[in-house]
Amino acid sequence: MRFINPKTDFAFKKIFGSEQSHDILISFLNAMLYEGNDTITAIEILNPYLAPRIRGIKDTYLDVKATINNTTNVIIEMQVLNVEGFEKRILYNAAKTYSNQLEVGEDYIDLEPVIALTITDFPMFPELNQLISRFILKEKTYLTDYPIYDIELVFIELPNFRKQLEELETLTDKWLYFLKTAKKLEIVPPVMGSVPAIQKAFEIANQANLTREELDELEHHEIFIHDQRNAIKKAVKQGLQQGLEQGLEQGLQQGLEQGELKAKLEIAKQLLAVLDDEAIIQATGLSLEQITELRNK
Q1: CA distance 29 to 72
Q2: Are 159 and 123 in contact (CB under 8 A)?
Q3: Ramachandran region of residue 69, left (φ > 0), alpha (ψ -120 to 50) or beta?
């Protein structure tokens, strides 16, 4: 068997957001949000997956929206590329979902909580170095929770999940392993298939069960991701070359050490619009303080 890559937005929406995916999504959200406990017992998918009709309409598959236990709205998104403004978009979508619940004349007490669950295929908070991060409103000095616990941002960083098949123990482990490795697997491992919802997810992800149009759309999305990654690599390479050339000229005039610093700073300037701080630090060797200073300028 060959399985589609759950990390593409198209595949993620088909697996977790289809009409037949209610039990899959309940199991997945219980694993991601409630440590595998059966907290969620009912779910309504608000924007179910539809088979592609027009190739290339990427926005169709951006997220999965659902209501859990008839009380809480949840937005689930799989993000492969760390694009500019991504953090603001997550916050905007959560706030918009929260505010759009009310019609004119309705009371604020009718507002239900919103959880924005985002799974990233890149380090989101490298300074934390943890798998799951949860953000809520707190008082700035004393870190006291805001009285209304209605908007929560949850991030899961897949690069920080490093368990191998034989190390899987919890439901959370098994779902994260599914996201990271399903495309590479040829059979459903028994430890995974023992969970009915994960077994069903594998069945939906089986390429043999996709239509020709869905396979074409999947290929289109994978090409898009591949092209975007190559564009970032090209920008880095061009930035390095330009920075090195300018750094060499400066180095001849002011000494090699100062020239190298200027070269790194020039490289960083070229990369500010396409990479996050951690990636620029790795590419240039500059400190976080130096990168922050460049962004402030």
Answers
A1: 12
A2: yes
A3: left
Q: Dmax over Cα atoms in the chain, in whole Å?
A: 70
- Name every residue whose Cβ is closer than 8 Å to that of residue 203 and which is 6 or more positions away in sequence: 209
SS3 65: strand
β-strand partners of 79: 120
Q: What are the tokens at 286? A: 């500059």
The contacts of residue 113 (CB under 8 Å, 6+ apart) are: 71, 72, 73, 149, 150, 151, 152
pTM for the predicted model, two decimal places: 0.73
The string of pLDDT tens digits covering residues 136-152 is: 999 999 999 998 889 99
- What is the per-residue pLDDT across 217-245, written as a single tens digit (0 to 9) for each? 777 767 666 656 665 566 666 666 666 66
Task: Annotate 182-209 with DSSP letters as a single string.
Answer: GGG-SS--HHHHTSHHHHHHHHHHBGGG
Cα-Cα-Cα-Cα dihedral sign, residues 283, 287, 290, 296 = positive
